[in-house]
Amino acid sequence: MKGFALEQITDFTDFTRGGDLTEFLKQTDNVFNMNNCRSYPVRVSPDAQHIHAILQKPKRGLVTFDRIQRVAVAQSPSYLDTGSALSVPIVELLYLDSGSKNSSALVAVILQNGKAEFWKYWERKAGRDLLQTSDVCNSSSAKVVSVCSSAKFIIWCEERAASESVSAFPAARNNFRYCICKRTYEREERGVRLGGVKISLHNSPCYRVLASRGNVYLLPDNQEAAPGNGSKFFLTWSPKQDRMTVSSVCKGALLSKTLHSTRRDSDYKTMISECIGILATIRPPEICSIAPTSCGGLLLVLSSGYIS
Known about the structure:
single chain; mainly beta; five-stranded antiparallel sheet; 5 helices; 19 strands; globular; HPS6 protein; HPS6_N; BLOC-2_complex_Hps6_subunit
């Protein structure tokens, strides 16, 4: 059997401001290891030509490092300046399918207040233009906590204000004040056209959404653990079919059902109640780390020391 070997792709000297990037990665590694951050603040484009660093402290913003294609590029490094991000945290940066071979050309910067900035990279001028700024959420008081993109969909978990919850009990409103939403996007000549917002899961705890090809995984947020049995399982969702599967790392799939347009059918607590009995009897290990696979699956590093 042929053995595996590591190959160095770059030492960042072929990127604009490569020295700054190396220093940033060193500082980020130290902070990440000490504080166990929920999300590493560096994103690499699908073609590995661009690296984006999400800045939170002391200044909020986004800095890009581009692979040098020509000598002229090295003399005029490009920045992706998201002006509104200076006062609002950046939740995520998404590489959207632009319908061309260059899948890194169209970038969406999603802010915590539900705003989205769509940027286009032009190789000829080695720079970016802001195409448009749009509202991703319907509610002006919504707070985006996690977002991803899959199969022409933008999917996110948002926190709703207490007044928007249908529950009459304050404790229930506090625990299940999130919802999982999606909307389509389509690239046009001068911008991006967004479809209508659809709430696929109502009254949900806080989830981190992670795309892996056509699947979206909903994993309990470690910083805001789901109440009750919520930390014992994770969800797998197909946005196209609106099919949700409840799974546990020790028991596999527990429940699979298609979500319908009625509020009851898409209510988180109603769905989970169908497998609450088995959830009460299991004690799965905690999920320590996650990574999507190229085939649409998910790798889970567990507290037991195993990889699932």
